[in-house]
Design goal:
By secondary structure, the chain is α+β, with helices and mostly antiparallel strands. The protein has two domains: 17-142, Immunoglobulin-like (Sandwich); 144-186. The chain contains three helices and eleven strands; from the N terminus they run H-E-E-E-E-E-E-E-E-E-E-E-H-H. The chain has a six-stranded mixed sheet with strand order 2-11-10-5-6-7, with no helix packed on it. It has a three-stranded antiparallel sheet with strand order 3-9-8, with no helix packed on it. The protein starts with a helix and ends with a helix.
């Protein structure tokens, strides 16, 4: 059983690099203004060293269209630009194949350039992998991205949470300080009462009368004894 599991593991490890030997990356979505230029980035990860036969290919599918059209190809150390398609004289290769970069720039954008751009790369012998796509949206004014709004909301919520925590601990500090002050004042009051009790309260009029009567009786008895 262990031998079968070991054999299956070896086969799986051998199969994974063959199925996904190269991974290609592009952005997910790009926003740009009419008349401006936009850079569409494309790079890849491969377990192999960068081959001299590395290739990059870009295709474009306009919004509403079913089939993509090829607009750029890099092979044999040279770029090949499309001179007949919608990006003729507007597409420029700015990548560095030695650094696994196949980026392009599209200049003087128009509303008709809205669509999906797909990049594919090969790094022989790593030639199996999934292409990656980026969607281009051309606007007259670039809208605020949802990520910016989400980030602002998260920032406000975190700020409120921090403020609530600060207020909570401040209230706890004030309450603890108040309790401490009251306890100290009570101890001082008890100390004064105790000292008064130790010193004793002055005798009342009745007690003074009794004491005087007792004193007079003693004086009388002492006089009788002398006689």
């Amino acid at each position: 059983m262990i031998a079968l599991l070991t054999l299956a593991s070896v086969l799986l490890l051998a199969a994974v690099p063959q199925a996904e030997s190269i991974v290609i990356y592009t952005g997910w979505e790009r926003h740009a203004l009419v008349g401006s230029d936009v850079r569409l980035s494309c790079s890849f990860f491969s377990w192999r060293w960068t081959s001299e036969d590395v290739t990059f290919s870009w295709s474009y599918r306009p919004d509403g269209a079913k089939d993509p059209i090829a607009i750029f190809h890099y092979a044999g150390g040279a770029p090949y630009l499309d001179n007949k398609g919608p990006f003729r004289d507007r597409l420029e290769f700015v990548g560095n194949p030695a650094r696994r970069d196949g980026s392009i720039i599209i200049r003087n954008l128009d509303f008709s350039d809205n669509g999906t751009f797909t990049c594919d790369a090969k790094n022989p012998p790593d030639i199996v992998g999934r292409s990656s796509s980026v969607r281009l949206l051309v606007f007259e004014k670039v809208p605020v991205q949802a990520g910016v709004i989400t980030g602002a909301i998260i920032g406000v919520v975190l700020g409120l949470l921090v403020l609530i925590v600060v207020i909570y601990y401040l209230m706890r500090f004030l309450v603890a300080r108040r309790v401490f002050t009251l306890s100290v004042s009570k101890k001082k009051g008890k100390g004064k009462e105790g000292s008064q009790q130790k010193q004793g309260a002055p005798p009342s009029a009745e007690q003074q009368a009794r004491l005087k009567a007792a004193s007079d009786k003693k004086k009388q008895e002492s006089r009788r004894d002398k006689k």
